[in-house]
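Quick one - first record:
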Amino acid sequence: MNESPRDPFLAFVADDVCRKVVAEAATQFGWNPGQVLVGGLQDAKRALTDVPTPNILLLDVSGSADPIEGVVSLAEVCDAGTRVITIGSVNDVELYRGLVDVGVDDYLLKPLGVGTLLAAFKRATAEPENIADVEESESLDGRLVVTIGARGGVGASSIAVNAAWMMAHEQGLRVALVDMDLYFGTVALAFDLEPGRGFREALENPARIDSLFLERALVRESENLAVLATEASLDQPLRFNSGAVDLLIEKLRSNFDVVLIELPRSLLPSCPSVLTEAEVIAVVSDFTLAGMRDTLRLSSLINDIKAKGQVAIVVNRAGFSPDLEMSQKDFEHGIKRPVNHVIPNDIKPLAKSVSEGTSAAAVAKSGKFVTALRDLVGQMSGGKAEEEQPSLLKRLFRK
């Protein structure tokens, strides 16, 4: 075994423009910029054969026909303990996952910024987690809960906002509330919050979904409740795949007790795994003919994809317009299953909550709306109570 001292850092990049950015980041991090060389995977393999590999190795895989195979081949000449950061020009979550699976610490997308590189260097040089801590974190994965409006205007967002607030404030759970309506979502607005930055960009570039992204994009309503939302520009089409959503949920579940996704119907074809992995899917409707039809369609879809979780049929604003509503019996006959939760129309606390930028549960804890909602909230949280949660120290170290 070669026992010569190891360099702290070495980089192989494909072009001079990239070399200058990496060298600047290396300089700011306290490393020698002369350790940034122009070259690809094969150059790195030749240079590292029979010499000690650095603690941190940055590799440009943009010129490789098979980056994953190239990294596997390079591993044959790497010493144990070397942490590898890759950079490339292909925005593909499958490539990212494949690189991580073979031992790469990070994959950064070109064009690179000095700030992005510094954040990656910081993560790569951090002390590895204790195995026992990792196992404990995995055993504490948060519950995934989804709310879907069977049609517009039935109050699915209001259900999500109030359920998240009640789990956070009444049950003491750490809750992440995610508004997947990237154009017209109202979750952040309901809490009078300015949406964080980077949500849309992360869905388009999943390599950015890491702990730093969560810190920047999540906005805190309180210590226990964080909101992830955005207000995307209407003239820009969305381009993301379900893999990015899966990765986002995976990160959130490792940091929160409950992750509640407010999912628009229009995104169902793009995010089928959100439904298959959810432990509770709340389909929110009203007692109208259109609500009955679309609840039946959503229930059939959930059944067809063999979702593993519980499906809760929630009728909201019951009694809002008696002349247009059918009876609960007729509604249940039409959807071919029972209604699980009926939430009465209770306009005063809802109107007050809007004017105060908070939840109805915060302004009327014993109101009809809130009282009826508590059964659904208990189903969403799995009946977890505050005293059953990890200690404060454990919650801190889970991060």
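second record:
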Amino acid sequence: MLLRGSPPLTARVFEAARGLRIVAKHGAGVDSVDLAAATRHGVAVMVAGGANADAVVEHALAMMLALVRELPAFDRGTRQGNWRDLNHFTRDFRERTVGIVGFGQIGERTARLAQACGAQVLVHTRSEAALPEGMVREAALDRLLERADIVSLHCPLTEKTRGLIGAAQFARMKPGAILINTARGPVVDETALVAALAGGRLAAAGLDTFAVEPPDPANPLFALPNVIVTPHVAAATTQAMVRMGTIAANNIISWLRGEVYDRRNLLNPEVAARSGA
């Protein structure tokens, strides 16, 4: 099965699909797949690891720069005939503190690119591996939220990360901070986010993912002028599509040959151990 998007692959699906041997995701997110059920039925679940990472990184940084420099507001104002206010100034991106939550391939590359643009980088990750030079580990999420001017989310959606950023976390963030979410929508409590943005606690947010997709056009986030929204397209570049398709195809072909194309892509290695792959 070649999986695009996030259709629910429940235990019932795996029970019915007796001949299924592999689910290959055309991408990286498999939060809609019951991994435990797949493993019980001997079905490998593989992702196209890293194929879309650079595309998502660029999208996240583009949102950061656009919101720091208030480009959406300037765009609207100019179209409406409002020329520049000589007394209004934005802030540089350089020397802002960017907090990265989750340090997989996308989180690490976002951190490196932000650092290359002059930002100070804080990292919150479960990994104990050494960080690149100049980056600072912040073991406590609350402490990272208190220190960061921009918080960028790059963690997978799990039961532990669902609702990870809610009212209590927004209350800890710097007044005027910016939130970027190119991870998964349910990582953020949208009701709390609306309150933080409308109440002035947060300066802005850039969102590529939502709690429900596609979102209701009446979603209150859409009425806020300090929010950039995109329709879950951070990974949608032509180059990323080719890379994802190629890796997904190789994952399938190799598995059916009794091999593993790239063990980093296999999410349930127990199945490989049982099959001898």
